[in-house]
Amino acid sequence: MNSSIITLQNSNYLFPVLIIFAFVIGLAISYYFSTKNIILRTLQKSPHKSINKIRENDYAKIIGKAKYVHQPLIAPISGRPCVYYHVKIEKKVKNSWSTYVEDKKIQDFFIESGNELAFINTTQANKFSQMYLVKDHKVQSGFLNDPSLKLENYLKTLGKSSTSLLGFNKTLRYNEGVIELDEKIAIKGIAKWKSLSEPIEGYSYSKILHIYGSETQKFIITDLPEVTQKSRNT
Q1: Is the separation of the CB atoms in 108 and 70 below 8 Å?
Q2: pLDDT (tens digit, 9 = 90+) per residue, 143-161?
Q3: Which residue has the higher pLDDT, 207 or 204?
Q4: How far apart are CA 129 and CA 127, in angstroms?
Q5: What are the residues whose beta carbons fall under 8 Å from the beta carbon of 217, sequence distance 6 or more?
């Protein structure tokens, strides 16, 4: 067989193999650098500290329970009281899903660990943050499956609709994650001890730990069980 024909045949096989290889590599890179996995790698290699052992400017990890500072937020889909919610609504187009709209809201809160408290000032922490919540409340709407009035009204507040211009239902899935009262969470941030301007009920100390983030040392928060259930103390 002519060598040029063999070379051409080989090249015809090589091109689709390269395409598949590039696709697999792209998926692997996307998975490795996802917010979830970046947070997992960062927190799993960090020992968590007791609050009273954390020093000024430590970049410290704390595992504990979320506590309210103010009246709680209300998660828009499940109606659960919380200090943080994250809703991701996706739309199906042909055979793939894409983000239709996202909605996040967080308020100041305490984290309690070993009868000690730390304060999370979310106005500051939000500037430099990495956050991931487990999406544990899921709803769908679409063909022959109308969304509830509550969902429809919620979409309107986000400037979106569950129907197309022709009035047909869009295929949507709604994923919501929250941090509820007393839910076990993990955080990591820069430590700053501050004097209390007024007393906190049940807290007898004159100073309280504040947790922040910076451009190089992000404020991290998650309720991933891989982090909250498995940790090393210092």
Answers
A1: yes
A2: 999 999 999 999 999 999 9
A3: 207
A4: 6
A5: 59, 128, 189, 190
